[in-house]
Fold each of these.
Amino acid sequence: MNVLVLSDDHETVGQWRAALEHIDPQICLVREGEVPGSTIVAALVDQPVRGRLAALPHLHVLFSMMAGVDALLDDPTLPPIPLVRLVTHDTVALMREYVYYHVVRSRRRFYTIEEDQRRRRWNLGAPSSSPSSCGVSVLGLGRLGLPSAIMLRDLGYRVAGWSRTPKEVAGIRSFYGPVGLQELLPTTNILVCLLPLTIETEGLLRADLFNELPFGASIINAGRGQCLNMDDLIAALDSGQISHATLDVFPMEPLPSNSTLWSHAGVTVTPHIAAEPTPDVFVSRLSRDLRKALRGDVLTDIVDRRAGY
Ligand code: NDP
């Protein structure tokens, strides 16, 4: 079974090919021109593919290598077949871990201790209060946001969540829509963004939102870089309105070497590594879903093209 790969990331694709040889040798990842188009049953893509899939007559399913599909949906020629986000159990576990680590690091300001060590300075600071004194709000209660919010709840944080449609989750104050967002902000000490990029979420994290948070709140963004207005963030950090920002995603990636974010004292940058599963986990999911698609079975994690995620 031939699966067309459209990606410039040759190293990662090579790892997947190697993993598939062990896990499901009947599936071949092929490049454009390597086999007749009529033999290709699925496509695996990580970038806009304008027009490049339209001529393949036997495509059953499209797989997105990225959990964020905003760039793909910009393509009006994308065939009207299921578009699946390959979110795995590992993706979820890794994101939960990333969120937990950075929530703790932000709440207890461990980044100042890391700086003190570099400066050979012993600084006890004020004693830490318990997690229950800290309000954490998770924007986006989807495949990654909901498990992260539940984990924080179970660790004793005061957790709120925000989504597009209403949710009921025990022990989590749930809000939805623009009005819900306004209600949640004043009790938010740490804001975790796990939103997809859509017309509605682009630039959502900006000055007026920051000003509704308690003074000195922290932000963690592992959703999409374009959800956050960087100039407004820098201004909020410089004024102290935001005390610290942890950023895993950026409008331009890799983050350009001349970006102020690299050296800003209030910013921690990580290179879009919050939740990337290993090749074997990734191709296992690919193999399972391809076989399901060919049998006509129902798939999960299908993108709702109208909602944009
Ligand atoms: P899902 O599609 O499962 O969930 C998206 C969530 O966002 C849903 O709860 C949805 O609400 C909510 N949402 C969407 N639009 C709005 C809106 N306008 N207002 C309020 N809530 C909204 O996505 P995932 O959880 O799988 O992933 C989220 C994002 O994380 C991805 O799009 C990707 O950009 C990013 N990501 C980052 C990674 C990294 O390594 N940094 C790795 C993987 C993903 P509702 O439930 O009502 O539909």
Amino acid sequence: MIRVEIIATGNELLKGETINTTTPFMAGNLRDLGYEITRTSTLRDQPDEIIGAIREALSRADIVLLTGGLGPTPDDLTRDALAEAVSQPLEFQPDIWAEIQSYFRKTGRSVPPANMNQAYLPYHAQAVPNKHGTAPGILVSYNSQTIVALPGPPNELQSMFNESVLPYLSRNYPPQTFTMKRTFKVCGLGESHLLEKIGEVLPLVDNDRVRLSYLPKGGEVHLTLQVEGDDQHQAKEIFTPMAERINALLGADLYGLNEETLAGRVGSLLRQRGYSLATAESCTGGLAAHLVTEVPGSSDYFRGGVIAYSNEVKEKVLGVSPDTLAAVGAVSQAIACEMAEGVRNLLAADIGLSTTGFAGPEGGSPENPVGTVYIGLATPGGTSNRKLYWPGQSRYLIKLLAAKLALDYLRREISGDQADEDRG
Ligand code: ATP
Ligand code: MG
């Protein structure tokens, strides 16, 4: 296996001010391609420590990836440390300086002289182009090894990694194994329920070549199957039947695969069926509409929404009955239904979706404690609702879960194959 070490630098990473996202990003991508990540470390902005760490990594790994410290300020030390570690002088590269200057001019700013530092690279190093910032990355071939230094800002790093580093590594260090991977996404199903559902395939997991990982993420669980083989044929033989089985076992709970989002899936279903959507949100304060409109092109099916936070707005804008409000309160099945119907009429949509609940931390009632949320759904076929309850969760999480579960409820209803236990 090809061994890779990743070294992140930055005082802010050690103080916990910034969460290191670039190491897991690179490690995950490389692992998927069949590289072995043998060590990751995080260092202070301290020149001797960075030089020492690079030299040590070179004594063990084939590829060393460094992040951070390529900026123009005095705490940006990676360029010098790297040159020192491979015993090469820094050399001014006029074409890089020209690119840095043109980057500033394009963004309408004058060129700070300090940025000239960024045009110095260790002798014989290659620049890695950076579309989103001024600092180019640095790629150094050292005997049969390679060291790549990339800037710390995650958006700059990610595109440089995908567009330059990965292609370079797969050309020069072709992975010796073949990996297949698929992520199955579900919403509103806890990890343990998910495990029960797919129990049948668990004995096939060996944690070495056949792996399953679970990532709970704001009301969703992302289950990733990864199979490694010596070649494509070997990987496929295990991967394909297993992936098909997981698909079947998850059934209607599965909302999407890989990069697909819940709101994206809902959008595709609405589009396929020619339905328009309107939202009426109380406890989620617009979060469901926000999720819906995260999807490019959502104006094709999303009419709009009303944040009906007060009872007055529920009555006056959505036409919710004051008698119902007085009788059962705003957090109730009946009001969820009236809100969904109200917004469906008001905004002339095919589907109205509503949320009403107690997000806490104060409030709630004996029959509807904090964490109770009702979702209402008005469709051409009629109105339905669902009651949810998340005790002991934070206000934000309750709002997020409610918004996500509302979308998932809509998805299940319009997919037409909703499981019985999920009906409200
Ligand atoms: P700059 O030109 O912006 O200074 P740089 O290459 O010098 O880039 P740093 O100074 O280390 O990078 O970090 C720049 C920004 O990127 C900081 O806001 C920092 O918090 C963030 N950052 C750095 N390293 C990481 C990391 N490993 N994960 C997430 N964010 C990071
Ligand atoms: Mg910096």
